[in-house]
Amino acid sequence: MGTLFIILIVVGIVLLLLGVFVEAVKFLLWLGLVILVIAIIAWLLRSIRSKS
C-alpha cells in the first residue's frame, strides 16, 4: 500500500508540472504571434512611408 501511495504522489506531481509547462508554452506561443503581427505591421508601415 505504501508504494502505491508513493507512485500516486509522483504521478500527481509530474502531471501538475506538465500542466504548468503546457500553459506556459501556450502563453509564449500567443505572445510570439502577437510580436510577429506587430513586427509585420511595423515593416509594412516603414516600407510604405519610404516609397512616398
From TrEMBL:
Keyword flag Transmembrane helix: yes
Top-level division of the source organism's lineage: Bacteria
Transmembrane feature ranges: 5-22, 28-45
Keyword line: Membrane, Transmembrane, Transmembrane helix
Protein name: Flagellar biosynthesis protein FlhA
Organism of provenance: Microbacterium awajiense
Classification lineage: Bacteria, Bacillati, Actinomycetota, Actinomycetes, Micrococcales
